[in-house]
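Reposting from the mailing list since nobody answered there.

I have sequence plus structure tokens for a pair of proteins and want to know whether others read the tokens the same way I do. The first protein:
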Amino acid sequence: MNILIDNAQVLPMTAAPGQSPGYFRGSVGIADGRIVFASADETDVQRFERRFGADLRRMDARGMFLLPGLVNLHNHAAMTLMRGYADDMALMPWLEEKIWPFEGRIDGEDIYRGARLGIAEMLLGGTTTFVDMYWHADRVAEAARRSGIRAVVCPAFVDGCYESFERTLVSLAEHNADDGLLSVRIGPHAPYTCSPRTIERSLELCERYGLGVHVHLSETLDEIEVVRQRYGKSPVEYLRDLGVFSFPTLAAHCVHVDEKDMEIMRHEGVTVAHNPQSNMKLASGVAPVADMLRRGIAVGIGTDGPSSNNDLDMWEEMRTASLLQKSATGDPRALPAYETLYMATAGGARALGMEDRIGSIAPGMRADLILVDPTGPHLRPCYDPAAALVYGGKASDVHTVIVDGEVLVAGRKLCREDLRETIRAVEERIGKILARTE
């Protein structure tokens, strides 16, 4: 289907932070999943209509903001199954006493159902691309394909489950990878759960299939201490010395990185998924995002999983990211609104190496777009669109979501999914999982 979006306030996100944002009121034309034009010139509209008028869906976006879809850079979507199950705990007791025992009792069907619920939540909130690290990643991929969302699926491993990881990774890489909406990376859990041998084996798969890496890195002080005791170096140095950074690496958290670590990350092209709310909830600390950005490190935003957040709301995450940097640095100018919105869109795309495909509104880009209704009282009056969205925007303001040219949310309702049935299926699975733990 070809689409013409008329009369929108367009936030193209093609300008880097510090440049004029280039907002305009105009139209965007979509054909074959790509943006054909984005313009305030009526002649561009007329030209598009002449070319595609026989098969054209028109959307009147008068009064709405049109911007690129949000990129959630780090997630464990199926952990909707554990939303509210393990709250108010530090990371290691949270993992060892609650999360890992629970995960030991769930199967692929549980993960598929949990992922469908997480994806539904993300789509309704304007997320069009997400990066997911989890077990049974083939079932997460299945849920993503069913929904129509763009996904980077990262089969996870720790030392004790490497063989199952390799089977899943090979299957995804050989049969399902890079189909346009779905791509694959390896997902070593963390430096403290993955030995040099398993990491080196996983990098052989990166080499064979041309894959990148997604890893938790320098999340807590406990991790720093454990890795230094075992290997005599920081987690960043540990992964560098194993050759991980020879492959495109997206690192989640990076809370406890010093100047030497950040210089290594900059030099090696490591990109970062910042997860402020999860880091706050688990009391992991505050990532030095403003410093990373000053050094030229590409940083985007993620929610982490819905067990450590507890939602998948990128609007809350943007607001928190900005305010947290201001508080941590003592500088109210740190991480201003436009830069934060850029991180959640074009910056996230750059962190994935997808900036030539998604994250901005320009001819030739894939049509991953959202319409936001700014008429709610919490967004009025509106002096600056980026400030309004970052400091006041909510997931419930998202009206329409388009991924690869397909409308997946219209009028705040999912087009492919029966949300009530999705919730019912998850709650049914929860009853069975809890019964297994008794």
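The second protein, same order (residues first, tokens after):
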Amino acid sequence: MGSQRTPREGWVEEGLRVLAESGVDAVRVETLAKNRGVTKGGFYGYFADRDALLQSMLDAWERESVDEVLEQVKRAGGDARAQALGAGELTFSNDRLLPIDLAIRSWARRDGTVAARLARVDRRRMDVLRATMSTFCDDPLEVEARSLMAFCVAIGEHFLATEHGDLTRAEVIGRAAELLLGPGPMRPDLPQ
């Protein structure tokens, strides 16, 4: 093992990577240290225990997948529709964030604390959709229904293995977005 010191963020990042690839049960101090080529002793300089690491991983996920995403779409500008599409693109079409998000959803099915965190994150995401729908719809029930359907499409399409005949998945998802959010450009220019 190396004698280098792994920064706190390195442990969190490796934990998120392992979570996304193998699930929460695979997130073990020994495994993370081995993957990083360091001893596990440095871990305890940053975290009291594995649970503290898991909490830090959830904090990092929420910050990156909500706070930073919303900052990026705000900087990119555009109307509420463009911002909602941008947030969805950055979150659910992102090779980094999507696997973490899906792993956390799986983890939340058996951990009430994680389920509460996921509910808070999803509530914030739904608020973005509600704000978007409210720009062209006055009926509170329709706003909520459209927001729910849009969110279900964003998450659920990753679990579907269906084909669409002569249509591509992108065409079908694009049309679903138009039906739910109204016509317009599919996404704003987002900083990479």
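Reply #1 (J.P.):
I read it the same way you do. The CA atoms of residues 7 and 46 lie 8 Å apart.
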